[in-house]
Specification:
283 residues, alpha/beta, TIM Barrel, 8-stranded parallel sheet, two-stranded antiparallel ribbon, 12 helices, binds the ligand O=c1ccn([C@@H]2O[C@H](COP(=O)(O)O)[C@@H](O)[C@H]2O)c(=O)[nH]1, pyrimidine biosynthesis, EC 4.1.1.23, lyase, Aldolase_TIM
Length: 283
């Protein structure tokens, strides 16, 4: 008997937010390890390694993968060192070895629509990232090429972690700070494809609480834990969703450079596991 070809409808592609939720649930972690390579901080064994950035980051990825819900390479750290190819290969490495772990390319892009299309293509085609950070200052048309990629995540700056965050983001417009307008606009008007997330810094627990109250379950990328001194308990208490998730809590230097000895990978794994456990105690 000849078999008739299967007419099964293909599985719908699982988008960034679905994959993130799977990882939160199945790996029980909200930790994101930031990949911010700084060769001057690498252990001595990398001093004469022409592929130091790739090799160091790959070791960190392999050591910390069990404890993370996402990896977040920061593009400037690679571009400044002419290491874009290392970045591309690292994202490929994560895709092959850890297909359940999404990659957020931290490039904070923002430009007029015709240029933004190329930034979207840079993130999603050149680097094959699952999500990208975007600056909303130019308005919706500048973010549209990213929003249109329903399978990919668009992680939009809302209330950043740095000391000067409030200079513009807290300016009062129509009786409320600008970052609250940004949060609401994204959650209510820009999130048609359900692929948006917001950057809200760990260093601002009150603002984390305010934004969570405005946007329901929209995921937050929360940098500022570790080297910037954010309080883990306050972050989780103020910003988790009702089911104890909703957060991508990112730490770079405190994990990457936990040791500059030969135990760097083990020390990074310990730091990531300790952060995971601390977060989970407060969920
Ligand atoms: O508001 C923001 C947005 C992005 N970042 C980025 O996150 C990491 C933080 O590094 P740490 O070593 O954990 O402090 C870095 O890549 C920043 O560019 C941020 O810090 N704050």
């Amino acid at each position: 008997m000849t078999e008739t070809p299967s007419k099964k409808t293909p599985e719908p592609m699982r988008g960034f937010i679905d994959r993130l939720q799977d990882r939160w649930q199945h790996a029980d972690t909200l930790v994101c390890v930031g990949l911010d390579p700084e060769p001057a901080k690498f252990p001595a064994r990398f001093a004469h390694d022409p592929d130091a950035i790739f090799n160091f980051c790959r070791d960190i990825i392999d050591a910390t993968a069990p404890y993370v819900c996402a990896f977040k390479p920061q593009i400037a750290h690679f571009a400044a060192a002419h290491a874009e190819e290392a970045l591309r290969m690292l994202i490929m490495h994560i895709g092959f070895r850890y297909p359940g772990i999404p990659v957020i390319l931290d490039s904070k892009r923002g430009d007029i629509g015709s240029t933004a299309q190329h930034y979207a293509s840079e993130a999603f085609e050149r680097y094959a990232a699952d999500a990208v950070t975007v600056n909303p200052y130019l308005g919706r048309d500048s973010v549209q090429p990213f929003l249109d990629r329903g399978d990919k995540g668009v992680v939009i700056l809302c209330r950043t972690s740095n000391p000067g965050a409030g200079d513009l983001q807290d300016m009062v417009v129509g009786g409320r700070p600008l970052y609250q307008h940004v949060a609401e606009k994204i959650a209510r008007e820009w999130n048609d494809n359900g692929n948006c997330a917001l950057v809200v810094g760990a260093t601002w627990p009150d603002q984390l609480r305010d934004v969570r109250a405005l946007v329901g379950n929209v995921p937050f990328l929360v940098p500022g834990i570790g080297a910037q001194g954010g309080d883990v308990e306050a972050v989780v208490r103020n910003a988790k969703t009702a089911d104890g998730t909703g957060l991508i809590v990112s730490s770079s230097r405190a994990i990457l450079y936990a040791s500059n000895g030969d135990d760097y990978a083990e020390a990074a794994a310990n730091a990531a596991r300790t952060l995971r456990d601390e977060i989970n105690r407060h969920r």
